[in-house]
Amino acid sequence: MWTTGTQTVATAYEGEDRGVSTTVDQAGGRGLAERLGIEPGMVVQERGWDEDTDDELRDAIADRAGSEMVDEDADDVVDIVLLWWREDDGDLVDTLVDALHPLAESGVIWLLTPKSGRDGHVPPSDISEAAPTAGLAQTSSISAAHDWAGARLVTPKATRATKR
User: Fold this and answer.
1) Count of helix runs (H) and strand runs (E) in the chain
2) Is the model's pTM score more than 0.70?
3) 139-158 mean pLDDT
4) Closest CA relative to residue 114, chosen from 53, 51, 38, 48
């Protein structure tokens, strides 16, 4: 382990893969659900769930929000859409446009894709091409889980201002 400021990071040690915890660690580091912008009381919609999604991340999000995530058939207005996406899942632009419908004006889409070298990996260029076509801008990216990368997508401020 090593520490940077207040965050403790676990590293591989003597052949063990310890990974990085998605929960708040004892040194006061931020949990992954918090890094995703999840706050207590938020409504999070999950799309694209399948057997390969990361249950630890899903549990951390539900714990932080204080309720289970709603599925894509729910009629709720949501603060965050968590979209699991793989290379063979279809048309990314269409799916992103669909994910915008339940999203609150200041909402965020977290597009989660398999990391490089994993089955279903989506090249970053595909995301950077699809996002603006769907009316979104990518603001950041993170390592969301052991096998998943996350891209934070939002509606550009200029677009939000014209919707009023």
Assistant:
1) 5, 7
2) yes
3) 92
4) 53
The answer to whether 50 and 23 have CB atoms below 8 angstroms apart is: no
* Residue 110: CATH number of its domain: 3.40.50.150
Domain count, the chain: 1
Question: Do residues 59 and 31 make contact, with C-beta atoms less than 8 angstroms apart?
Answer: no
Q: What is the pLDDT of residues 41-77, one digit of tens each?
A: 999 999 999 999 999 999 999 999 999 999 999 999 9
Do the domain assignments include residue 109?
A: yes
To which residue do tokens 């801008």 refer? 137
Is the residue at 95 inside a domain?
Answer: yes
Gyration radius from the chain CA atoms = 16
Burial class (CB in 10 A: 0-12, 13-18, 19+), 2: exposed
- Segments forming the whole domain that contains residue 98: 39-163
- Residue 61: the pLDDT is 97
Task: Please indicate, yes or no, if residue 30 is contained in any of the structural domains.
Answer: no
